[in-house]
Amino acid sequence: MKRLMFAACAAMAAATAFAAYPDKPVTLVVPFAAGGPTDKVARDLGEVLRKHLNGQTVVIENVGGAGGTLGATKVARSAPDGYTLLLHHIGLATAPALYRNLPYKTLDDFEYLGMVVDVPMTLIGRPTLPANNFAELRKWIDAHKGKINLANAGLGAASHLCGLLFQQALAADMTTVPYKGTAPAMTDLMGGQVDLLCDQTTNTSVQIESGKVKGYAVTTLKPVTTPALAKLPTLDSQGLKGFNVSIWHGLYAPKGTPKAITEQINAALRAALKDPEFIRRVEAQGAVVITDARQGGAEHKKFVEAEIAKWGPAIKAAGQYAD
């Protein structure tokens, strides 16, 4: 009888704890530097999530390094109590192929909470490039084989992945120039030190609109309709049939986080994705709010499994790994 009473009391205490969640600030880990595209999404999301998480502050913690794996590892090893979450992009699905000694298991060490946004990519060039459209750019690339510098924000970054597929689609051999983040890569592109960069609309729209870089194409199958990007054709329509790269972002908790808490976070996420201010902010940057079944954890995980299967062979074919 005493054991039954103890078990009942424990269950009631646990239920009360879950019902009170969160009763302190929630940390949202971004596995990249502050100011980058993923950081922007996280800060917009954190601000609106607060409304649906008992008004608790959502603290953004930038844990950059190793292509996002340091931040992801931190969350995978955190207490599974709902107070440490991860916002990660496509890099979570490409890391198993890029890193031989990945310190976590992508499909086993996280609770999948739902996807947030899709962000198209843009192909941009230094302002002094003689090519003024993609057709001219292809001719310029053909005429300068082996002499073209393609920047990216580091191994495993969205720009690295997009650039990798772009080179494969054109069968063009370019010199890859990795940087420690998008900001220095963009600075050198605007200054003419490198030739090309493929990066997210959240990080390129302002520079394209201001004329600081040349915009050549978007990487999704459908055009992007924001004012800065509406005139850019898709790579698919310019001869690279089937070229389709968007940088999705998802929300995660450590494995073992109680279902009552993950369901509460998912409910808060779904509410946030309907928030008019959040939608306005991300769409102004060319991003698209997830509205389909991937808002749920189960479909989110299925999608990541498919992305792992998609990107693994491409990365291995390129022979680009990190220890």
Instruction: Look at the structure and name the CATH superfamily of the largest domain.
Output: Bordetella uptake gene, domain 1
Low-pLDDT runs: 1-17
Strand content: 15-25%
Main beta sheet strand tally, sense and closure: 10 strands, mixed
Distance between the termini: 56 Å
In CATH, what is the class of the largest domain? Alpha Beta
Helix content: 40-55%
The whole-angstrom Rg is 21 Å
Q: If you consult CATH, what is the topology of the largest domain?
A: D-Maltodextrin-Binding Protein, domain 2
- Based on helices, strands and strand pairing, what is the structural class? alpha/beta
Number of helices: 11
What is the chain-wise order of helices and strands? HEHEHEHEHEHEHEHEEHHEH
**What is the total tally of β strands?**
10
Gist?
It is built from eleven helices and ten strands. The protein has helices spanning 2-20, 37-49, 69-76, 91-98, 134-143, 158-170, 182-191, 201-210, 259-272, 276-284, 297-318, and strands spanning 26-30, 58-62, 84-89, 110-125, 149-152, 175-178, 196-200, 214-218, 246-254, 288-289.
How would you describe what is shown here?
The chain contains eleven helices and ten strands. Residues 1-17 have low confidence and may be disordered. Helix 2 (37-49) links the parallel strand 1 and strand 2. The radius of gyration is 21 Å and the shape is globular. It is of the alpha/beta class. It folds into two domains: 23-119 and 247-318, 3-Layer(aba) Sandwich (D-Maltodextrin-Binding Protein, domain 2), CATH 3.40.190; 120-238, Periplasmic binding protein-like II (D-Maltodextrin-Binding Protein, domain 2).
